[in-house]
Design brief:
Elements: H1 2-23, H2 29-53, H3 61-77, H4 80-104, H5 110-132, H6 141-161
Helix pairs in contact: 1-2, 1-3, 1-4, 1-6, 2-5, 3-4, 4-5, 4-6
Amino acid sequence: MVRVDHAGEYGARRIYEGQIAVLGRSRIGPLLRHMKDQELEHLQAFEAEIVERRVRPTLLQPVWHAAGFALGAATALMGERAAMACTVAVEEVIDRHYEEQAARLGPEEGKLKADIERFRAEEGEHRDIGLAHEAELTPGYRLLSTVIKAGSRAAIWLSTRI
């Protein structure tokens, strides 16, 4: 659980870094930086958990490093709405993922569960920001969203195993 969450937050940070590289000076630049800062906080929390629990990070981190940035930059090059569509798609997958994890955690994992629930709420805010910035008006939104969600689910599956 900690391995996959660490990988996911690492990938999310890289997505925002890719978007900021393209749209950092646009009107949504400050929003992208705010969301990236929250992802960095989540990542740091899972980095501490990895050390404390002696969990091996995913071996796919170099892949997520490149793929996250590429996804962020590519959607940003498609425009602000497409960047926001990427955020909405990723955060919808993560919301469900964190919801399932929180439901599985017992009282002995109170701190981890509280962190996951807080992070889930912040990821929901990111999704809402994307929707408020007209993500759904992106040309080809359904297709783009479907592809990004499938990729996010695949990354979760792979990071739990590798």
